[in-house]
Amino acid sequence: MAIIRERIIDALLQIPGVDRNLVEEALLIQHESNISFSEALVKKDIISEKDLVLLLVRELKIPSVDLRRFKLDSRLKEAVPERLARQYNLIPIATLGTSLTVALGDPLNVFALDDLRDITGKKIEAVMATPTQIKEAIERFYGEADQGTVSELSKNIDVGDFEVITESKGDESADVDGSEEAPVIRMVNLVIKEALRQRASDIHMEPTAGNMRVRYRVDGVLVDVLEIPRESQSAVIVRIKIMSRMDITINQIPQDGRFKMRTSGKEVDFRVSVLPISHGSKVVMRVLDKANLSVGLGQLGLSDRSLALLEEGIIKPFGMILITGPTGSGKSTTLYSIINKLNSSDKNIITVEDPVEYLVEGLTQIEVRSDIGLSFAAALRSILRQSPDIVMVGEIRDNETADIAIKASLTGQLVFSTLHTNDAAGALTRLVDMDVEPFLVASSLVLVCAQRLARKICPHCKQQIDVPLEALKRFAGQIDPKTTFYAGKGCDHCRHTGYRGRFAVTEILVMDDPIREMLLQGKSSDDIKAYARKNQGLHILWDDALERLTQGQTTIEEVLRIVSDE
After folding, report:
1. Is 161 a residue whose pLDDT tops 80?
2. How high is the pLDDT of residue 175?
3. Of 147, 42, 57, 136, nearest to 89 (Cα)?
4. In Å, what is the CA distance from 526 to each residue of 131, 314, 425, 529?
5. Is the peptide bond preceding residue 355 cis, with omega within 30 degrees of 0?
6. For residues 193 and 213, what is the distance between their CA atoms, to the nearest angstrom?
7. What's the mean pLDDT in 254-263?
8. pLDDT, position 177
9. Which of 33, 225, 332, 553 could form a disulfide with 548 if both were Cys (CB 3.0 to 4.6 A apart)?
10. High-pLDDT (> 70) share of the chain, %
11. Would residue 409 be called left, alpha or beta, if left means φ above 0 and alpha means ψ between -120 and 50 degrees?
């Protein structure tokens, strides 16, 4: 051990500004404070925690790990007691046969390794991590939700700035919050509060055979967050049902609801879906933050070209504008942002939705109720007698809705809606396939915008990278070989994913006379797309994604994930 310490001291003395006196002072601090030599070096500001790990890795030939990327197996808790982990600031990360791998911040502490070897009876393999990461990992690992009751988990959660707001009348709202000290309430508030902090768009709570798994959808990707003990599962679901004004006695059929919460002075809406599954009821909460709608079209991440085409189209006095794309492609956000931009006191704007997502002041919003006969078509037929200037139809699902919406756009209304098609040209032929007359489609449509959402490279850890030539073969002739590529290294701002936030990749097809003629002639969507690319300069989704790639906004992996070159 003395020989190892001398090697470390010799390496430290090679660092500019570090001399023997500083090292001796660190040794004195070690003995006086009863701390490790490594901690003393950091405390004395001789070297940073991160640089010390790099030095130890280099000198001692011990591998290092980033514990923030590890999901530790809970069975390892049986191998290393919490008391021992906290005493020596180490954490188990893997076991294989007779070997146990642990991460520790002080490789000079031979007593820790000896004790661990005696207690576990295993051969100990050591890897390095920063002491701070190990402390954080210990708190996460030994304090996980599946290792205690909800009362224990929630006792330190601050709910003072959380308030459930209801739309109900009378005294019903009094029983929503109940006692703010209840452990289950604290647990649900913890899940919601953390979701808002991590910018999640959805919260998934799914019962399994052993517990309830909680996941957040962040930037379009689901990530595991925590596990809630199975014995607390029913109480958590009942709490969410009460908040959402659902029937807590019904567990065999799906239910939908919504609630609003005020936190840190901001109100956020939540749309809730409860679905019976094999192990109980799965809950999915969609986070609807109206702050996302007030930023304007310019903040949706559209390219300059797409933004100009869209802004030109939405000022038309009448006609139909369609937003297309799969579920989760941002269609609703784009539609609401457009409506928000057009919302003024001199316009009568009516929406028909299933369900109403964002409650926006100044709009007349109707929620579809198929159980009582209030379908999209029935609601749309009625609101046309309300003298609307602008109509938003949440989704065109059938021939009747499509026919009424198109005819409304021909009689003086500006109509916005969504459609599930893969590209912009496909929306034209899809409407014809829904038995809408081609001449009506040709006369009514102003433009079609197809879109996807791509993750942005995190600006805090963005760095230039070298891309192998093999990986660029897919883009041969489409990207300048001299293009500089970037990726996110991973940091606390992006949860070490390398991505933070998303932007819209778009394909906007503007109707013109040749396209209308092609539609009347029964031409395919491929023919229409080919014409638009040649004569309109149409940027298909692939083109827009490649342009963003060359601008350093996203990565090759993300482009290939969301679009294809077909």
Report:
1. no
2. 39
3. 136
4. 59, 26, 7, 5
5. yes
6. 17
7. 87
8. 45
9. 553
10. 89
11. alpha
Closest C-alpha among 101, 108, 157 to residue 124: 101
Q: What does the CA dihedral 309, 485, 542, 392 come to, rounded to 10 degrees?
A: -40
Range in 135-144, 333-342, 478-487 the model is least confident about: 135-144
Taking Cα atoms as reference points, which of 5, 47, 48 lies closest to residue 27?
5
Give the span between the Cα atoms of 98 and 259, in whole angstroms: 52
From the list 210, 339, 219, 220, the residue with the least C-alpha distance to 280 is: 210
**Quick one: which H or E segment has residue 507?**
strand 499-510
Q: Which residue in the block uniquely carries the two structure tokens 């707001």? A: 165
Residue reference for tokens 């891309």: 467
SS3 171: coil
8 A C-beta contact, residue 336 and residue 299: no
Q: Give me the DSSP letters along 99-114.
A: EEEEEES-TT-HHHHH
Cα of first residue to Cα of last residue in the chain, in angstroms, is: 63
Query: Where does residue 289 fall: left (phi above 0), alpha (psi -120 to 50 degrees), or beta otherwise?
Result: beta
In angstroms, what CA-CA distances link 14 with 5, 19, 30, 50, 333? 15, 9, 21, 17, 57
- 441-445 LR contacts (CB < 8 Å, sep 24+): 441/406, 441/519, 442/511, 442/515, 442/516, 442/519, 442/520, 443/410, 443/516, 444/319, 444/320, 444/406, 444/407, 444/409, 444/410, 444/415, 445/319, 445/320, 445/321, 445/322, 445/511
Band of the pLDDT at 125, cuts 50, 70, 90? confident
**Which tokens in the block code for residue 418?**
């969504």
Residue holding tokens 């500083």? 22
Q: Pairing mode, if any, of strands 390-393 and 255-263?
A: unpaired
Report the DSSP pairing between strands 202-207 and 280-288. antiparallel
SS3 label, residue 36:
coil
Residues near 10 by Cβ (< 8 Å), separated by ≥ 6? none
The Cα–Cα gap between 339 and 243 comes to: 29
Side by side, the strands of the sheet bearing 99-104 are: 90-96, 99-104, 123-128
CA–CA dist 323, 338 (Å, integer)? 11
N residues, the chain:
566
pLDDT, one tens digit per residue, over 204-237 is 999 988 888 899 999 888 988 888 887 788 888 9
Whether pTM exceeds 0.70: no
* Diameter over CA atoms, the chain: 90
2, 23, 25 from 28: Cα distances, Å: 16, 9, 5
Nearest CA-CA partner of 407 in 381, 370, 372, 371: 381
Pairing mode, strands 99-104 and 123-128: parallel
Tokens of 107: 């490789």
